Amino acid sequence: MTDLYQAQRAMRNMRKAALQRGVVALLDIGSSKIACLVLRFDNDDAVREAEGIGSLAGQSSFRVIGAATTRSRGVRFGEIDAMAETERAIRTAVQAAQKMANTRVDHVIACFSGAVPRSYGLAGEVEVMGAQVGEQDLARVLASCDMPDIGQGREVLHAHPVNFALDHRSGLSDPRGHVGARLAVDMHLLTVDAAAVHNLIYCIRRCDLELAGIASSAYVSGMSSLVEDEQELGSACIDMGGGATAVSIFMKKHMIFADAVRMGGDHVTRDIAAGLQVPMATAERIKTFHGGVVATGMDDREMIELAGNSGDWEKDRRRVSRAELIGIMRPRVEEILEEVRALLDVAGFDHLPSQQIVLTGGASQIPGLDGLAARILGQNVRLGRPLRVQGLPQAATGSGFSSVVGLALFAAHPQDEWWDFEVPAEKLGGRSFRRALRWFRDNW
Amino acid sequence: MRSLKAEPRYLQQAGQRRVTIRSRSNGGRRDPAPSRLAFRLQRLWLTPFVRAFTRIGVPVFVVTLALGLWLGDEGRRADAMAKLEDIKLSIQNRPEFRVSTLTVEGASPEVEQAVRAMLPVQLPASRFAIDLVAYHDTIARLDAVKDVSLIVRTGGALDIKVTEREPVILWRTPSGIEMLDEIGHRTASLTRRDARPDLPLIAGEGADAAVPEALQILAAAKPILPRARGLVRMGERRWDLVLDRDQRILLPEENPVQAVERVLALDAAEDLLNRDFTRLDMRNADRPTIRLSAPALAQYQAISAGALNSVKVSQ
């Protein structure tokens, strides 16, 4: 636990160093594509730091100077499957982005959707030591959360303090300085498979890059595609990627739940390839150009040529109607959405005040998906696109880039996580001198 | 018995080439990923320091090194200098820069001849071959020349405008007679006094330095000039006005002109200059003194003795 704590702190320091240097790369390692953005930060915001968040929540301080996308290889279900292939794909994306940015990038913040994310809600409670809540009280209350059994070989990816309660008052975002007796905290813990994280770290190290942060793509795509009131009132972001569909629920601007369905657009493609007996590339093309989930009478008459070069004239000259294609695609999309529905039910999504559902990710571009999703998930469904950030190329404004844009927001203005707070004095153990120093500083 | 290897189905005909169709291994498309080396090299290239070094440092170094190596050889350096000199000469010798005629204005024939002889090069010559400043200084160093200006006009003409010194006085020295201008600068020598009877004569050591004063004295002494033979500088500080009949007027060091005017006034009043004296000493302004000549003195003594006797007789 402390090991991870140290690792996360180290990454946070690395992120600060990267911001100091001014250039950082963002890497979205997806199952169907790997996207890389290069951000340049203007370091003249010392004044803004003092005021808290900069203008536009810190988005005005950075600019996208390089963007590249490459076909992902060696990634399945949002996890790294073949290391060497993934490494090559990362190299391709990073090199292209560096070339566009015309600068060298050393620090990378990465996100991925797979690795079986699992959410835990933690609660802790502690007596306030002084009259007012201080940094040490926060540290103690965070430390007082009893750690759930997250299982063997899993690691904590995010640990957000979601809510603070002081005596009978709840919903405090920052209790420091408040007068009270009992301080309680609700924390959201997201764990992932440790092996996946280690593979990712290894891959990025192999590319001579330093990892300055890891995020779950469910979290970051929610940050970029949900608008502010949706984040505040409660909403779910469903990031339909190639190999995995990430679900995150936001409430009061905090992620309170995240999970992933290990199915995505690639499965739809595979169904088409199997059903129509065409190569995967052709199936992907047909899906992109002619795909849909709601069949109409017109679709029976709209014939799609299945070109091929198998040498068999009869096979290469087949034509299918669009209705047939939709007939293949729809069950798989429905299955994904049903799984998402099950996840949302488990998470208690229907208890939230607002139940907005936002579909984003590359697979959300299937025409008619919002109608189908409204039937399965609930009425408040919209298609989400990532926020517009400075310098983002037009090609990277599609819904497939919501997680990498979210990473930019994550890099510019990260939410406080557990390891951003102070270490409780008791945990420091033998460092009695520093404790004495701290006592002096607190009391004089 | 047939061999295990199948017989070739299509035997190669004469004039046919064997063509092997090789399928590309990885799905027919080249791997777009850069190799680790390429990736690292590109990152190295994108490093600002490396970029600056390669784009500025290395070319500068290479050029400097090449130049240094090439110029390190003595002979090559000399060759290069000679070539440079050749080019310079070929430009200087172009007809546009040629000076072919020399005109001298405002100079007497002797001076003009001297000016022409002083030209350091043979005309026609390049404009760059004539050092005009040095030539100007050489001409100005001539005693007879007061001022000179040199202009190279288009068309290759070198115009020299000379202003000569005007001689106003003659100076007799032990070696001969010199002509001086109004500030006492020598203009030319004279072998005979008769050549310029119109000019007054001065003599004595250091007389040339006081020519303006001499001219003032002479101007003041205009009425007695027919009698004057000249001025003599005495001890490099004052003048003697020498008259005929071996008479001299000794002028003071200061205000000699007023002394001359006083002499003229005395002459007008008492006919002083027609008296028989050898020296008229005006050096003491309070007490002009004359020295009588020997016969006059004898006569004076005889007269004064006779007068004494007659006085005695009358007593």
Automatic annotation (TrEMBL), chain A:
Q: Which SMART domains match?
A: FtsA
One Pfam family this chain carries? SHS2_FTSA
The cross-references to Gene3D superfamilies, in alphabetical order and at most eight, read: 3.30.420.40
Q: Specify where it is mainly localized.
A: membrane
Q: Which GO terms describe its biological process?
A: FtsZ-dependent cytokinesis
Keywords, in A-Z order = Cell cycle, Cell division, Cell membrane, Membrane
Name where it's found: Cell membrane
Topology within the bilayer? Peripheral membrane protein
Per the record, the domain of life is Bacteria
GO terms for cellular component: cell division site; cytoplasmic side of plasma membrane
For the SHS2 domain, which residue ranges apply? Answer: 24-225
Q: How does it assemble?
A: Self-interacts. Interacts with FtsZ.
**Role of this protein:** Cell division protein that is involved in the assembly of the Z ring. May serve as a membrane anchor for the Z ring.
Q: Which NCBIfam families did the record assign?
A: ftsA
Q: Which family does it belong to?
A: Belongs to the FtsA/MreB family.
Q: Output this protein's name.
A: Cell division protein FtsA
Q: Which organism is it from?
A: Paenirhodobacter hankyongi
Automatic annotation (TrEMBL), chain B:
The record's InterPro entries line, in alphabetical order, gives: Cell_div_FtsQ/DivIB_C, FtsQ, POTRA
Q: Can you supply a Gene Ontology BP term from the record? A: FtsZ-dependent cytokinesis
Tell me what this protein is called.
Cell division protein FtsQ
Q: Where's it mainly located?
A: membrane
Which residue spans traverse the membrane? Answer: 52-71
- Which compartment or compartments is the protein found in? Cell inner membrane; Membrane
Q: How does it sit in the membrane?
A: Single-pass type II membrane protein
Describe the location of the POTRA domain by residue ranges: 97-165
Species the sequence originates in: Paenirhodobacter hankyongi
**Family matches, as PROSITE patterns:** POTRA (PS51779)
Which Pfam family, any one, appears in the UniProt record? FtsQ_DivIB_C
Give the function comment from the record: Essential cell division protein.
> What gene is this protein a product of?
ftsQ
* Gene Ontology terms: cellular component: cell division site; plasma membrane
